[in-house]
C-alpha cells in the first residue's frame, strides 16, 4: 500500500517536471506527470510537449513502459478527456493499465474536463486535490489565470535606481542594474510567451528582446516580440531579424495587445514609462518584477508615467510576494491581491 507521503513526494516531482513545459506548451497547460510502480518507485516522468506533441501523462507512460501496468499516475492537472491534436490522456492511462491516479488541480476547461469521471468509470482509483494549492501557484498559475480571465498573466518588468529613475538626464541608461540582474531577467524571458515594448523603445534602442545566456547564446525558447504603437518599425530593426515571431499592434490600447496574443499564457511588459503606465491604468498588470539598483540619480526619466493617478487614492497597490538579492541589486516581486482582474 502506497502511503500519502509517497504520493505527495511524487506530486512534488511532477510539479518540478512541469516547469520544463513553461513557455513551450502554450496554449496548452504546462503539466507534469510521474508514474510510480507498485512499490512507490518512480518509473516514468514526463511534461507537456509543444502543441501537437505528447501530453505529460503520455510522456511519462512511454518512459515507464511495461512498468506502468498496475502502477500509479501522479499528475499536476486532472487528465484531459477530449480529443484535440492528441488523444485523451484519461483513456491513455486506462489503456496502459494504471490502477490509481492522483492529481492536484481539477481542469476548469469544460472542453477538456471530465477525465476523473472517465477514469473512475473504468475502475481506476482517483484522488484529486493533492498539493492543489502548491500546484496552482506553480507552473500552472499562468494557464489557470487565462482560464479565469480570458487573457494572459501580465508581468511588468522594471529596472530602476532607488529613486525610480531609468535613465540619467542626458539619456544614458546602460546599465543601471548589474550583470546578474540582467541575467535573471533573460531567464524570465526564456519562459515567457511574449515581450511587449512600445515604438519609442523599438526605434530609440533597437533592442533584440531575445532571451540570451551570459555567453550571448540564445535560450532554446524565444518569446514573441510585440511592439505597440502606430509608428513603423523598419525592416532593418533587430526585432525583425527572424529569431522569433514579430507582431506589431497598431494601437495604444493594452487590451488590443493582449487580444493579438490569443495563445499566450504569460506576457512580460518591458516598454518605457508610457507603456508601463498604460498597462497599469488599464488594470492589466498582475505582477511586477522590480529590479532595484543601489543608485540614486536625483533626476532623469521615471520608470512609470501614468496620468490617471492624481492622488494617493488613485495609486496602483500591490502585495509584496518576494524580495531577492540579485548581485548588488534587489528584485522585488509584487502581485495583485487577486488574479481575477
TrEMBL record:
It catalyses: 2,5-diamino-6-hydroxy-4-(5-phosphoribosylamino)-pyrimidine + H2O + H(+) = 5-amino-6-(5-phospho-D-ribosylamino)uracil + NH4(+); 5-amino-6-(5-phospho-D-ribitylamino)uracil + NADP(+) = 5-amino-6-(5-phospho-D-ribosylamino)uracil + NADPH + H(+). Residues 5-116 form the CMP/dCMP-type deaminase domain. Zn(2+) binds at residues 55, 80, 89. Pathway: Cofactor biosynthesis; riboflavin biosynthesis; 5-amino-6-(D-ribitylamino)uracil from GTP: step 3/4; Cofactor biosynthesis; riboflavin biosynthesis; 5-amino-6-(D-ribitylamino)uracil from GTP: step 2/4. Keywords: Hydrolase, Metal-binding, Multifunctional enzyme, NADP, Oxidoreductase, Riboflavin biosynthesis, Zinc. Binds 1 zinc ion. Its EC number is 3.5.4.26, 1.1.1.193. GO terms for molecular function: 5-amino-6-(5-phosphoribosylamino)uracil reductase activity; diaminohydroxyphosphoribosylaminopyrimidine deaminase activity; zinc ion binding. GO terms for biological process: riboflavin biosynthetic process. InterPro entries: APOBEC/CMP_deaminase_Zn-bd, CMP_dCMP_dom, Cytidine_deaminase-like, DHFR-like_dom_sf, Eubact_RibD, RibDG_C, Riboflavin_Biosynth_HTPR. Pfam families: dCMP_cyt_deam_1, RibD_C. SUPFAM superfamilies: Cytidine deaminase-like, Dihydrofolate reductase-like. Substrate binds at residues 173, 189, 209, 212, 270. NADP(+) binds at residues 159, 175, 201, 205, 230, 272-278. The active site is at residue 57. CDD domains: Riboflavin_deaminase-reductase. In the C-terminal section; belongs to the HTP reductase family. NCBIfam families: eubact_ribD. Converts 2,5-diamino-6-(ribosylamino)-4(3h)-pyrimidinone 5'-phosphate into 5-amino-6-(ribosylamino)-2,4(1h,3h)-pyrimidinedione 5'-phosphate. This is Riboflavin biosynthesis protein RibD. It comes from Gordonia spumicola.
Amino acid at each position: 500500500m502506497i502511503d500519502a507521503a509517497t504520493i505527495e513526494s511524487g506530486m512534488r516531482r511532477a510539479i518540478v517536471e512541469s516547469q520544463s513545459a513553461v513557455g513551450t506548451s502554450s496554449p496548452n497547460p504546462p503539466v507534469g506527470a510521474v508514474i510510480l510502480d507498485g512499490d512507490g518507485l518512480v518509473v516514468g516522468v514526463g511534461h507537456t510537449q509543444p502543441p501537437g506533441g505528447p501530453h505529460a501523462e503520455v510522456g511519462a507512460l512511454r518512459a515507464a513502459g511495461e512498468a506502468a501496468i498496475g502502477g500509479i499516475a501522479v499528475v499536476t492537472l486532472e487528465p484531459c478527456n477530449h480529443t484535440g491534436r492528441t488523444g485523451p490522456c484519461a483513456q491513455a492511462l486506462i489503456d496502459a493499465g494504471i490502477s490509481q491516479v492522483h492529481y492536484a488541480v481539477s481542469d476548469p476547461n469544460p472542453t477538456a474536463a471530465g477525465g476523473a469521471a472517465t477514469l473512475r468509470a473504468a475502475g481506476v482509483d482517483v484522488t484529486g486535490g493533492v498539493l492543489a494549492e502548491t500546484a496552482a501557484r506553480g507552473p500552472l498559475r499562468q494557464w489557470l489565470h487565462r482560464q479565469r480571465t480570458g487573457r494572459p498573466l501580465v508581468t511588468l518588468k522594471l529596472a530602476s535606481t532607488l529613486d525610480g529613475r531609468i535613465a540619467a538626464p542626458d539619456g544614458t541608461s546602460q546599465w543601471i542594474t548589474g550583470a546578474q540582474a540582467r541575467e535573471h531577467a533573460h531567464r524570465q524571458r526564456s519562459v515567457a510567451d511574449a515581450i511587449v515594448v512600445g515604438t519609442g523603445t523599438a526605434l530609440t534602442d533597437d533592442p533584440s528582446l531575445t532571451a540570451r545566456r551570459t555567453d550571448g547564446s540564445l535560450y532554446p525558447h524565444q518569446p514573441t516580440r510585440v511592439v505597440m504603437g502606430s509608428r513603423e518599425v523598419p525592416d532593418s530593426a533587430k526585432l525583425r531579424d527572424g529569431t522569433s515571431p514579430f507582431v506589431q499592434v497598431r494601437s495604444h490600447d493594452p487590451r488590443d495587445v493582449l487580444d493579438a496574443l490569443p495563445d499566450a499564457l504569460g506576457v512580460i511588459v518591458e516598454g518605457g514609462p508610457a507603456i508601463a503606465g498604460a498597462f497599469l491604468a488599464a488594470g492589466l498588470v498582475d505582477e511586477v518584477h522590480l529590479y532595484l539598483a543601489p543608485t540614486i540619480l536625483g533626476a532623469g526619466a521615471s520608470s512609470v508615467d501614468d496620468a490617471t493617478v492624481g492622488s494617493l487614492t488613485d495609486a496602483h497597490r500591490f502585495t509584496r510576494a518576494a524580495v531577492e538579492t540579485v548581485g548588488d541589486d534587489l528584485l522585488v516581486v509584487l502581485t495583485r491581491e487577486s488574479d481575477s482582474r
